[in-house]
Amino acid sequence: MKTIKVTEKELATIKAAVWGQLQSVNREIRFAQEQGKDISFLLELKREFEEVFEALKYAN
Question: Domain residue spans in the chain?
């Protein structure tokens, strides 16, 4: 793994992008549940985005 340095603005942009993707996955989960589809992949994706977002809280 490589460490990079980012500005506060870049970090805020990354956090916003991850948060947006997490919200998108949440919507997809709701739609898939309503249609009775398998959501296991989406739940794993959600967990990964949540972990990334948590890690970004401690950046800088």
Answer: 8-57
pLDDT in tens, the chain (60 residues): 888 899 999 999 999 999 999 999 999 999 999 999 999 999 999 999 999 999 998 886
Task: State pTM to two decimals.
Answer: 0.85
Cα separations in angstroms, 7 against 13, 56, 59, 60: 10, 13, 11, 9
Distance between alpha carbon 24 and the CA centroid of its chain, in Å?
Answer: 9
Residue 25, Cβ neighbours under 10 Å: how many? 20
Q: What is the CA radius of gyration of the chain?
A: 14
Nearest Cα residue to 56 out of 28, 24, 22, 29: 22
